[in-house]
Amino acid sequence: MTTSDPLSGTSTSFITPTTIFSLLFFLLLLTTSLLTSHHLLPHPRPRLTFLLHTWHTFEFLIHTLFEGSFLYHCFFTYTVITQPSTSDYPHPASLSSSATNNQITWLGYKNRSYGPRHSTHPSALLWQEYSNADTRWNTTDPTIVSVELLTVLLAGPLAAYICYLLQTSTHSSSTSAALAHAKSTFLMSILATAELYGGFMTFAPEWLTGSRNLRTERAMWKWVYLAGFNGVWVLVPGWVLWVAWGEVRGSFVKAMEREEGKKEAVEGEGKKMR
Question: By CB atoms within 10 Å of each CB, which of 82, 133, 140, 152 scores lowest?
Fold first, then answer.
């Protein structure tokens, strides 16, 4: 049975064509990431480098194509809100009320409603499907849009640059490869931290206000959309930070071993001179 949902304006059927389209879209991006890494990285290559390159390629595609489309609909897709044409609208009393004076308007337009819900484009349908689980993604929630601006404009390009550094670390000479490896480790830790912070800022306001926009009555919405899709952006960035920590720790240990070796060599030379 299919019913109309009053909050998101989308179907509440368990499985719809849009549901299948959404899952296939993510599968396509993941497959593209795997094939891209397989093509760009040389053979043989370290398994860890391949996994990191695949993840950051996936990050770039998600932030640019998928989340970029969300921003597009938030800034360019809208419906004009028609107002009553009666002579007493708005009533003079309403003009002096604090509620009207403090009303939040998106981009300064009081007669427009923005967001993916006002479009039938395939990219908008993806967000309408996801909004079954979190209704904020069907509208222009200020917190969500603010986080996505940083994600699309900064995190996406940074993920692409990290992929370039990972490629350079496997193709170049030893000095260039070492420098690219160090840069990629540093930037990966920054991006992973930003992903975790962005996830916290996405859901913390909801948890603090009673999760009014989160809908968990269906297993698909709760476990696949909310827990599954968002859990990936917690577990994998956490793993990336663990990898980066291992690289930094290993570098410091090697540096200390070299210093100790030099110190022992100097002490040995001193003893011979005696």
Answer: 82
- CA nearest to 129, candidates 12, 249, 246: 12
* CA separation for the pair 52, 266 (Å, rounded): 41
Residues lower than pLDDT 70 in the chain: 1-14, 83-104, 172, 261-274
Retrieve residue 163's tokens. 């992929």
Give the side-chain half-sphere CA count within 13 A for 193. 8
pLDDT in tens, 168-190: 998 767 888 889 999 999 999 99
For the chain, the straight-line distance linking the first and the last C-alpha, in angstroms and rounded, comes to 94
Beta strands 112-114 and 78-80 are antiparallel
**DSSP H helix total and E strand total for the chain:** 11, 2
d(CA 121, CA 138): 13
Please tell me the pTM assigned to this model.
0.83
